[in-house]
Automatic annotation (TrEMBL):
Pathway connected to this protein: Pyrimidine metabolism; UMP biosynthesis via de novo pathway; (S)-dihydroorotate from bicarbonate: step 1/3; Amino-acid biosynthesis; L-arginine biosynthesis; carbamoyl phosphate from bicarbonate: step 1/1
Assembly mode: Composed of two chains; the small (or glutamine) chain promotes the hydrolysis of glutamine to ammonia, which is used by the large (or ammonia) chain to synthesize carbamoyl phosphate. Tetramer of heterodimers (alpha,beta)4.
Gene3D superfamilies, sorted: 3.40.50.880, Carbamoyl-phosphate synthase small subunit, N-terminal domain
Keyword Ribosomal protein attached: no
Documented EC number(s): 6.3.5.5
Active site annotation, chain numbering: 246, 331, 333
Protein name, entry field: Carbamoyl phosphate synthase small chain
Record region (CPSase): 1-170
Family designation: Belongs to the CarA family.
Keywords per UniProt: Amino-acid biosynthesis, Arginine biosynthesis, ATP-binding, Glutamine amidotransferase, Ligase, Nucleotide-binding, Pyrimidine biosynthesis
Residues that bind L-glutamine: 45, 219, 221, 247, 250, 288, 290-291
Enzyme class: ligase
Organism: Halpernia humi
Gene: carA
HAMAP family: CPSase_S_chain
Amino acid sequence: MKKILILESGEVFHGASFGNHENTFGEVVFNTAMTGYQELISDPSYCDQLVCMTYPLIGNYGINRDDFESIQPSIKGLIVKELCDFPSNFRSQMTLDELFEKKNISGISGIDTRRLTRVLRNSGVVKGKIINADSDIDAEIQVLKNETFITNEVEKVSTKTPYANPGRGLKVVLVDFGSKLGILRELGKRDCDITVVSHDVSAEEILLLNPDGIMLSNGPGNPEDNTLAIEMIQNLLGKIPIFGICLGHQLIALACGAKTFKLKFGHRGGNHPVLDLKQNKVAITSQNHGYAVDQESLKNTDLEETHIALNDRTNEGLKHKNYPCFSVQYHPEASPGPEDANYLFDEFITLMEDFKSKKLLK
């Protein structure tokens, strides 16, 4: 079935539909990863977005049971150059087309993704819509310009009820703003006893669980919309060690008085170099964010910048000067991408152990 991708800026791209054939609307972003499309489409941080893959061939190793980052994908659509109909991999259980059909996700193939990426890099991310080829394009573009994004993305992807991922080690409360399963896996590898709670949990509810540490997960949307989470963090600083990833990183910054802003086209891919300012060491990281912490706003806070992105010099890491709290903008759990930054989970374990030891000595 022929389909068209239209952008609010007026560009039109002709292609073919795959998966669910319904029209779909979302923010158009691009990802530069060469592999890992299964993890990408199931990453809750892509809630309500149309993702353009810059790598030209997608679906070539199929879909398997092990590489999902959520049970129900919340991505609105996928934009690819060439869709592979006959994947080849010993783990493959279905095609990407079959998965999208089962999960009611729309996709469009045959798109000039190089041209689309250049448009997004020049103009910034824009609203887009996948529509039928026989639609009135001019009229649809006018409608698209008046479309508005929802602001409750985190509420859509966060767990509604708490649940446990038991272990015999340190007790960690994972606040789910749209958490990837990779975070659970990394904490589980370290035998943490994990309780996953909703995005709107209060500080009092967390303290009742008596955790050794708090993990603030990744998630979609504008960090400033999460006022309850910001208040929760403010009430927990200094009481329990905190580690924030991606959206969790931005929320820590906001809770400490810093500001965030929207990037022109965001960081999305598995090949982003980040400099550790203390160790003077570079890690290649997996990233997926459209907002960043305003470095100038850090000057009047108790936060210290620990990492920066080498591509555009934006902030990639923070540490509190007085309390056991640190965060990174990128994804140390990878999934997909390199695992250079995996050691940060070990640093979180050490932070919790040290804090626990000091409490016992008092």
